[in-house]
């Protein structure tokens, strides 16, 4: 029989997704519920048909005397017409409705029986509560801290300008690539203009600085506001968004990542 408790522990060690650990614990608690039922049924059966009994038998001592001692012996049920095995005890049924026969004796409706001692599975909400309590304890004890953190990072999403962005490690990497390229273009274009402006001997230093500042504003607007990209949101729909929005979504994502790490300490 699969030890789901052990499986859950192995999953924790392997840093498996929280949903898989919860699934293993769900099976564990259901398994334990079934074991408890079987143990209770066995205890009832053993009261009815104990396997052994204590009898007194004579024992000869070295000095020739005889004493009576308690000895445990197996009980012979061969002459007991009421005796049933444990499996028969579990499988005992009662008739719920008799068979219905037609005038020729053919069965129209078969006899319906049900187990006298049926196993009733646990209510799922009760199992969910046990799983939640176990998970909460594991998180509290630090046993699941890394798993919870990694799952939170993987599921992270942020909303910006009505678009919901994935904010896991891969998504942050994609955002960072866009932001880095935009930054590279901004620096390249502004540096080129700055070098050209400073080399212009027809303008005063003040005019050069004003021109450089105006160019920086224009380049920033062109790259970050006027340039758009197609971005697949967390809803799996392509959205046309400004590069500036990607920058702001990245900033929000990194802030949330920091919060998750702080809470996992």
Question: Can you walk me through this structure?
Answer:
By secondary structure, this protein is an alpha+beta fold. It has eight helices and ten strands. It folds into two domains: 4-137, no CATH class; 156-264. It has a two-stranded antiparallel sheet. The protein has a two-stranded antiparallel sheet with strand order 3-6. A hairpin with a 2-residue loop joins strand 7 and strand 8 (163-166). Helix 1 (4-13) runs antiparallel to helix 2 (18-48) and helix 6 (169-198) packs across helix 8 (243-264). The longest helix has 31 residues, at 18-48. It is elongated.
Q: Tally the structural domains.
A: 2
User: Averaging pLDDT over every residue, what do you get?
Assistant: 87
Radius of gyration: 38 Å
The fraction of residues in strands falls at 15-25%
Helix content range of the residues, please? 55-70%
Query: How many beta strands in the DSSP annotation?
Result: 10
The major β-sheet equals: 2 strands, antiparallel
Order of helices and strands: HHEEHEEEEHHEEHHEEH
Derived structural class: alpha+beta
The neighbouring-strand order within the major sheet is 1-2
Low-confidence runs: none
N-to-C terminal Cα separation, in Å? 37 Å
Instruction: Sum up the overall morphology in one term.
Output: elongated
| Count of DSSP-assigned helices | 8
């Amino acid at each position: 029989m699969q030890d789901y408790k052990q499986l859950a522990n192995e999953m924790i060690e392997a840093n498996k997704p929280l949903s898989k650990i919860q699934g293993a614990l769900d099976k564990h608690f259901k398994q334990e519920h079934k074991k408890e039922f079987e143990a209770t049924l066995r205890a009832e059966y053993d009261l009815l048909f104990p396997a052994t009994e204590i009898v007194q038998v004579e024992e000869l001592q070295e000095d020739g005397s005889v004493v009576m001692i308690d000895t445990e012996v197996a009980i012979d049920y061969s002459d007991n017409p009421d005796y049933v095995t444990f499996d028969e005890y579990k499988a005992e049924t009662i008739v719920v409705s008799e068979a219905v026969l037609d005038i020729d004796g053919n069965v129209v409706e078969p006899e319906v029986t049900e187990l006298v001692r049926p196993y009733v599975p646990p209510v799922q909400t009760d199992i969910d509560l046990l799983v939640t309590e176990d998970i909460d304890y594991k998180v509290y004890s630090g046993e699941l801290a890394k798993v919870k953190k990694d799952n939170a990072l993987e599921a992270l999403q942020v909303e910006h300008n009505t678009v919901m962005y994935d904010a896991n490690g891969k998504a942050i990497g994609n955002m960072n690539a866009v932001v880095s390229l935009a930054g590279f273009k901004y620096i390249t274009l502004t540096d080129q203009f700055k070098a050209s402006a400073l080399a212009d001997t027809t303008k005063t230093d003040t005019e050069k600085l004003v021109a450089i500042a105006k160019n920086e504003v224009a380049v920033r607007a062109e790259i970050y506001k006027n340039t758009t990209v197609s971005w697949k949101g967390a809803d799996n729909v392509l959205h046309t968004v400004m590069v500036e929005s990607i920058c702001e979504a990245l900033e929000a994502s990194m802030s949330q990542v920091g919060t998750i790490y702080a809470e996992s300490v």
